[in-house]
Amino acid sequence: MAGPDEQGGGGLEPSRQHRQDLVAYLLVQAVDVEALTATVDRLLAVIADRDELDGFDLDARRTLPERRRMLHLIPGLLADLPDKLTVQVVHGDYSPVNLLWSGDRLTAVLDFRPPDPFLPAYDLGRKAFYPNTVTGGGDWMADAGTFITAYQDANPGVPAVDVRACGRVALLQLLKSVYGVKEHYFETQAVAGGPGRVLAVPPSDCAAAPR
Question: Checking phi first, is residue 90 left (phi over 0); if not, alpha (psi -120 to 50) or beta?
Answer without folding.
Answer: beta
